[in-house]
Amino acid sequence: MDSVRLKKGKEKAVRQLHPWVFSGAIDQVKGKPENGDIIMVTDSNNDFLAYGFFNDKSRVAVRLLEWNLETEINESWWRNKIRNAVKLRTDLHSEKTNTYRLIFSEADYLPGLIVDRYADFLSVQILTSGVERIKPVLLDELQNLFKPKGIFDRSDASARAHEGMEASSGGVLLGTEPPEFVSVRENGIFYQVNIAEGQKSGFYCDQRDNRKWVAEYAKGKKVLDCFSYSGGFSLNAMRQEASEVISVDSSALALDTLKKNIEINEFHHIPHRLVQSDVNKQLRVFREENEKFDIIILDPPKYAPSRSAITKASRAYKDLNRMAMLLLNDGGLLATFSCSGAVDISMFKQIIAWAALDAGKNVQFIQQFSQPADHPVRSSFPEGEYLKGLLCRVS
Ligand code: SAH
Known about the structure:
29% helix, Archaeosine Trna-guanine Transglycosylase, Chain: A, domain 4, globular, binds ligand 1, 6-stranded mixed β-sheet, 7-stranded mixed β-sheet, Transcription Regulator spoIIAA, alpha/beta, 11 helices
């Protein structure tokens, strides 16, 4: 087996079970491994540390899979890892919920593999050349476990490009093509999901718990859901009988889907407005028109894709939150989220504190949000923690 030897001192993270070896940590590559090959990683004394797959086109040159010298990474190893990930989600499946993440990459010890379930359909993202190689085993195991109507490829092209991989051709990998809209349930609410063209892999199932918790405050309240997408927060607020719900998103497809979702859940008796606009502009329009709200949800896209973007992202988060604070009735609630892994919860609290100062408001943090059980954070891989949110009382 080919191997890479690490520079002295670079073995520490590997010993602590962190799954990444950066190219800069490598002293020598022994043999001629091809991208996706399983190789051995050794310390500077050539002693075994771990096995992983190699990729010299990626900043992460080795993704570690196994720390036990005796264990062979073969087909049954992969099948076991897949089954283990799926087992963690068994309790999530219920009468009320049939959409969730089945496999979450490094967090499930399967670097570069993401699988989401949408009722009888599965959507797969293959983001490393190592996982690309086991595609037939993966599809076979998923077929055995779920007998899905279809498995669809939604591999993100830019994530693949970072790994030096070509964009995948996409489309159906197994079974039948999904209909334009697949109907799924989450906490008893129905959603239409466009698996082929919706954002991310069609639905943001990472906000499942948070949508429910925020909505617990919504009864009789006027709720503004910013960056609503297909209405996760809006629909939960409607179910709790908010007095009015206003949803803002820049995407026409998102709002069309939200409209359908309101119909299929029979929530049309709740007064609602769908506004297709840039949130930053729309918040200023509300301010000019002196319109106020009792609850505002801010769930923007990732502002900081990497550490280098933190300064710019902090400014954007601060401005967005400042504007929202100015639109709340006294004692109103701001549920504010960040899905940027580079911005951690303490930094996010600091940003909100700055926004409060600038807005001339008092803020009390009354609840903290993170990611749900199907998006676990592996203790040796803190990078996997990306979603955070704060419920703030603003006066
Ligand atoms: N809250 C949603 C998920 C939000 S994802 C849910 O619960 O499902 C982020 C959303 O922000 C996407 O729908 C995207 O279309 C929208 N978006 C991105 N930039 C925007 C902007 N500047 N103004 C308005 N919407 C924006």
